[in-house]
Specification:
Layout lengths: L1 H15 L3 H11 L4 E6 L14 E7 L3 H6 L1 H6 L4 E4 L13 E7 L8 H11 E12 L5 H17 L9 H7 L2 E10 L5 H4 E9 L5
Parallel strand pairs: 1-2, 1-4, 2-3, 4-5
Antiparallel strand pairs: 5-7, 6-7
């Protein structure tokens, strides 16, 4: 298991997350990001080519050292500074109200405590700051939901804790955010149990505790 999680899985995810279809989804999710950015679940840096011109700096948070190594070329090619921090989303080593934007793509499915991670997101955002997300999760169709529940245990083991059954919109709203924009849909050409996406821009409706 150590070899799988430390070596095989990061390289597998680096490959499957590099598709053209996902690149277009990233572009749409990140189009309004600007200023100083914190990215949760940075992985191997697939978002970096899709950040718009208004981004000044990215602080990249991820617990996988292997993924950080795979991100080196993307970090070197970025037109803005990228600072990598080996942390989990539940414990962000950053001052209160220190970022203009927080980005999360394909991350809330995997963090052990998504509520704690979202509380951290709310804490580090500046007043008026924005949370940009692209996440897969619990589908709207009961038949698809049934398959997601059947396969969730396998997904959790095979893909480093990835959950198929989290209701992303409910989690984000429950953490004190309101959506300025939200789109929910199946990604065309992918199995429905993994392709129900929530793409949105949210802002805190209440201050962090």
């Amino acid at each position: 298991m150590g070899i799988y999680y430390d070596w095989v899985l990061p390289r597998l995810l680096n490959s499957v997350m590099a598709t053209k279809a996902l690149g277009e989804q990233r572009r749409m999710a990140l189009k309004d990001v600007k200023g100083t950015v914190l990215e949760l679940g940075f992985g191997s840096g697939h978002n970096l080519p899709f950040y718009p011109d208004g981004v000044e700096r990215v602080v990249a948070v991820d617990p996988s050292a292997a993924s950080a190594k795979l991100a080196r070329k993307r970090i070197a090619a970025a037109p803005f500074p990228v600072e990598y921090r080996n942390l989990t989303g539940e414990r962000l080593d950053a001052p209160d109200q220190s970022f203009d934007a927080v980005v999360s793509t394909y991350t809330l499915c995997t963090v052990m405590d998504p509520v704690a991670a979202l509380e951290q997101v709310r804490r580090v955002l500046k007043p008026g700051g924005s949370f940009h997300l692209l996440e897969h999760g619990l589908a709207v169709d009961p038949k698809v939901q049934a398959w997601q529940r059947r396969l969730n245990g396998f997904s959790n083991v095979a893909f480093g804790g990835c959950n198929l059954t989290r209701d992303i919109e409910q989690l984000v709203r429950g953490a004190g955010f309101g959506f300025e924009r939200i789109d929910k849909y199946y990604l065309e050409g992918e199995p429905k149990f993994v392709s129900w996406l929530t793409r949105g821009l949210a802002k805190p409706e209440r201050a962090a505790a």
